[in-house]
Amino acid sequence: MTTVSQYVDDVKLLLDAIDPEQVERLTELLFEAWQEDRRVLLFGNGGSAGTASHIVNDLQKCIHLDAGKPLKALCLSDCTPLIMAWANDTEFANIFAPQVECWAQPGDLVIAISGSGNSPNVIRAVEKGNDIGAYTFGLAGFEGGHLLSAARECIVVRSANMQQIEDLHMILLHLVFTLLRHRAAALQ
After folding, report:
1. What is the pLDDT of residues 89-108, one digit of tens each?
2. Whose CA is closest to 163, among 154, 155, 171, 153?
C-alpha cells in the first residue's frame, strides 16, 4: 500500500534524477523556435495527450501575452474528429504522422510524449518528423522505449509507475515553459 509520503518521496527522487542540461536543451530549442517563428508540434496518447494539450495552452497564450509574440505551438492530440478519421480510414498507428506531414517543416520542433516510449502512433510521427527535417524531442518513461532511439533527444523518467511518469512530464514541461517565459519576456 502506497502512502502519501511514499508517493511524494518517489516523485522527489525522480525529479532529482533529471539531467538539468536536458531541461536547458529543450528550453533552448523552444526559444529558438519562438525567435525564428518556427512551429512546435506536441502530441501523445491518454494522459500524455492531456499533458500536450495543457502545455500548448501555456506555450501559445502565455508566451504571447508576456513577450508580445506568439510561439506557434499546436497539439496534434486535440482534434478528435481528425484523429478518428485517420484511425478509421487507415489505422490507429497512423493518427499523428499525417498531421506531422501536414504541419511540420524543416527546422520545426516536434515534441512527442509517451509514458511507455513505445506507442506506435507516436513513434511513426517522430519518424515522419525526422524525415521532414524537423527536430524531434521525446519525453518518455520506463527505460525510454523506442522513443529514446527514434527522437533526436529524449528525456526519460526512469520509473515503472505511469502516474509518476506523467507527473514528471508535466512538471518538466511547466519548468521548461517557465524558463522560456522569463527568457522571452526579458527581450521585450
Report:
1. 999 999 999 999 999 999 99
2. 171
Query: The domain that contains 120 carries what CATH number?
Result: 3.40.50.10490
Query: Per-residue pLDDT tens for 4-20?
Result: 999 999 999 999 999 99
Domain limits for position 85: 4-186
3-class DSSP state of 157: strand
Question: How many domains does one find in the chain?
Answer: 1
**Cβ–Cβ under 8 Å, residues 159 and 14:** yes
CB atoms within 10 A of CB 44: 27
- DSSP tag of 19: -
CA proximity to 158, closest of 19, 23, 26, 55: 19
Q: Per DSSP, what are the bridge partners of residue 24?
A: none
DSSP SS3 for 156: strand
Q: Which three three-digit cell numbers place residue 19?
A: 539531467
Residue in this structure with the C-alpha cell 508540434, named with its chain if needed: 41
The partner residues of 141 in beta bridges, in order of sequence, read 157
Q: Which segments of 17-125 are extended strands (E)?
A: 39-44, 72-75, 109-114
User: Residue 188 pLDDT more than 80?
Assistant: no
